Amino acid sequence: MKSDEELNEILFQRKDLAIIQSMIPENARVLDLGCGSGRLLKALKVSKHAKVTGVERDQQKLLQCVERGVPCIHSSLDDDLVAFSDNTYDFVILSRTIQAVRRPDLVLGEMLRIGKKGIVSFMNFGHINSRIQLMLGNMPVTRHLPRPWYDTQTIHPATICDFRDLCRKKDIKILREIPLTSRGDYLPQFAKFCPNLFASTCIFVISR
Predict the structure, then answer these.
(1) What is the pTM of this model?
(2) Cα dist. 165→16, 95, 157 in Å?
(3) How far apart, in Å, do the first and last CA atoms of the chain sit?
(4) Mean pLDDT in the chain?
(5) Sign of CA dihedral 111, 114, 116, 119
(6) How confident is the model at residue 45 (pLDDT cuts 50, 70, 90)?
(7) Residues sharing a CB contact under 8 Å with residue 182, sequence separation 6 or more, in sequence order
(8) Beta-sheet pairing, 201-207 with 173-180
């Protein structure tokens, strides 16, 4: 068993991943779409004895998953999720990846076909920092969106209100919504009451 310090090194650089990790029960079956280097899955495997699988298209990140002992499939979220059978996972996770897929609506549908519940986190383009930069005539560059418009994988920027609207149109239930702030955010205590303006990131737990 790894020490708390080692788990922190694996996971807790990102607040959304730490919260997602806390939501997963013992021995759950977890699929992480766009799992990156496998930090979250490694923590779930060690701390929750979860049965984990990752999906990642970046070859270098795939190798990092292997080095961490995390099973990972080299695949595209846009084209290859049909290979997964219905209801084979308890949780399907999509953390800070939805903005980079071609059809977020279709990916959400596949998530809830494959798993009983979905957990989605994404950067909120409705955040006040982004609004101010847009008002001044520039595409946003923030702590959570550090790359300029010409060097980013984000092809579908969305706000918290946009995500709620998509769920409503697709008859997806929002079971829980967790707005998050980071150091330097304006009036972080207001994120709970007006997340679309003051939350820089948000986590949604969804189901059919």
Answers:
(1) 0.89
(2) 22, 19, 14
(3) 36
(4) 88
(5) negative
(6) very high
(7) 15, 143, 144, 200, 201
(8) antiparallel
